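Deliverable D4.2, example record:
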Amino acid sequence: MTTLAAGDQAPTFTLDTLDGQSHSLAEALRRGPVLAVFFKTTCGTCDLIFPYLNRFIGGYGGGGWHLWAISQDGPGRSRDYADRYGARFPVLVEGPGWPVSRAYDPPATPTLFFIAPNGRVEETSVGFSKDELNSLARSLAAYLGQPPVTVAEADDGRPSFRPG
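Output generated by the structure prediction step:
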């Protein structure tokens, strides 16, 4: 498999949240773009990015788009992780055999896929990059017709880049 790139059609999927709510990519795209973030609870770079993901919700609210964190770990560890970082977005749990991860083939965690309402991947980001997080925020703002929000300040005391 090859990691999905900009322009690729995103495979559709349905996964459950930690609370058992079913989320379908096809249904979500009817309401706007989806930012899908693949992560592991043992990933140090994921620890770094999770607070920035909350800033997307703070900056753009929850209407007209979706942010989903897709855990490659079981529900118990995923719930503890989401609670530790105060996740303000749904955490979906990958199924047995990781079918969604296999379809998207993220090269590392975290990997982010910005999926346009037409189902095409518009941007990807691997690891932690403030520049790429802000680019994703600008793309989201364009879809929502809002001014862009800076979700990753250059001088916030965190590194500008860290590989996944």
